[in-house]
Design brief:
With 243 residues, the protein is α/β, with parallel strands linked by helices. 27% of the residues lie in helices and 24% in strands.
Length: 243
Amino acid sequence: MKRVPDTEARITIAGDSRTIDESGVEFIINPYDEIAVEVGLRLKEKHGGEVVMVCYGPEGSGPVIRKALAMGADRAVHIVCQSAEHEPYQAARVLATALEEEKFDVILCGKQAVDDDSAQVGPMLAELLGMPCVTEASALEVDGDKVVVHKEIEGGEEVVEATLPAIVTCQKGIAEPRLPGLKGIMMSKKKPLAEKKVDEPGLLTEVIRLEYPPTRPPGRIVGEGVEAVGALIEALKSEAKVL
């Protein structure tokens, strides 16, 4: 699970021009990871077992992790990150180290994080752990010692089988995350949340600078009614150059 800025938050660049200014920004569970939590809870309800949340995030991630516990996860592991900058490979290496200590059948990830949109951590984690990986699952079933995953493709559906243990990344539509009830919120305060610190590998990439997108030019009205059609076509040809 990744802690990310609220998708409705107004993001500004920090003074170092390499990170975002976190002051006043609310952080949430990455929406795709929240979907993965729901899938894990449904598997537990059907097959039994335990749902363990693993989060690699900075100090202060506790409230976000507690929300996953309030949804119904049994316990959580918070790997406290020390570095200010992150990349998918670094996250995958750290998570692989922590997960090697756990006994699991299925590792569920969101298909991507909404802050960097890399969609790389799940497949990288599978490579590091030597496990099969199926990405962008739109449906998932566990059948004995295998997992059956449905993937939406252009013009149809692809069905993939993988031997457990396996990693599956979850797409929108596979499940609608439940809202934690008052009982779940109260119980989450008593559930185990272990903090760990691990050696973080060096970064393979470096952020040189963050920049805002170019400012859009202001719109203008070329006329009204039918009389505006000619002026609009001319503007699309000569100014926008899209015709």
